[in-house]
User: What shape does this take?
Amino acid sequence: MLYAFNKPFGVLCQFSGDGDTLANYIKTKGIYPAGRLDKDSEGLLLLTDDGKLQHQISHPKFDKEKTYIVQLDGQITDAAIEQLILGVMLKDGLTKPARAKIIKEPSWIWDRNPPVRFRKDIPTSWIELKISEGKNRQVRRMSAYVGFPTLRLIRIQIGDWTLANINQGKYERL
Assistant: This one.
């Protein structure tokens, strides 16, 4: 079985422990996350009861491309996009080349709770970023490296699996 979950901001990618966990949203027993999204990120999380499939989805050696919609602090430049595409040097090494482009704020996006901070004199911008590795907090570190910190991060696709029309906090069997 494979399930797609639209993880809200603030939810931990685990079924037990303190705080807002997957157990508050997912009632199907015996399925586990294939990969992770940090507490501050939203969007697509795949869950399965198949260990082999879980490994194929989450292990970096399989190069599963992950697509993110990212709201950035400031108006991103073409030079910063080019840096993201070429790869950036993080503390744990050079990132693989990414696919990145500037986009308009998606019309379908839901409100975040709590809202992203608003600063009247500093604009925000949006990018679509596709990466095929999964270093810890990689997208956030990449955007900060090029001078545009991440304000909001939403994963919308992993390989061929998409968030589609799954409402926030809901999951469905694929």
About this structure: The chain has three helices and eleven strands. The mean pLDDT is 94.
